[in-house]
Amino acid sequence: MTGGGGPAVLAEAAWPEPGDGAAPLLPGFVHSAFNPLVAAVADRCLTRAYQAAPAPDGLRTAIVLVSPTGDEASAAHVRAAVAGGRRPGPLFFFQSVPNSVAGHLAARWGLGGPVVCLAPSGDPRAAGLAEVDLLLHDGDADAALLILIDTAPDDGGAESAVAVLLGGGDRP
User: Fold this and answer.
1) pLDDT tens digits, residue range 13-31?
2) pLDDT digits over 30-74, tens only?
3) DSSP-assigned beta bridge partners for residue 13
């Protein structure tokens, strides 16, 4: 995955994969597919790695969420509501930051590592892998779940996400 002695791929997943429709709804998150898509791909990847929640005791797994655009649908909804003199629903304040879904995943899976959200202007995968390498090298985490999400593809394609669990080379 990273080449040159970087962390090993412990599990990976994509959304959609063959047979997938829309990502399942995620309680507490409304209007946008961003958060359900992040949760669906992360759950799929972590299930492949650990079979079922939670992660192994004592394993510090970081979450690195990378999205060049973030949750554009929710941001547009809030902008339109405010411009129209309406109040956005209270859930929009909670879900408007990407780390809310990352925190949700950390709690559900018992992940005890740091949470980092990036909105790079360059290559999202390269930025995410650089962050993962740093977290693992500095000893801040034993493994890292890298989630790459594209909710506004330039080619007009469907929303998609990839999750890769990376670690020091030994399966946790």
Assistant:
1) 999 999 998 889 888 777 7
2) 777 888 899 999 999 999 998 876 777 778 999 999 998 777 666
3) 163
Cα distance between residue 165 and residue 147, in whole Å: 9
Report the alpha-carbon distance of residue 101 to residue 51 in Å, rounded. 21
Backbone phi and psi for residue 167, each to the nearest 5 degrees, phi listed first: -155, -170
Closest by CA position to 161, among listed 136, 107, 109, 125: 125
pTM over 0.85: no
What token pair was written down for 100? Answer: 């809310």
Which residues does residue 162 pair with via DSSP β-bridges, in sequence order? 14, 148
**Nearest-CA neighbor of 135 among 124, 145, 148, 149?**
145
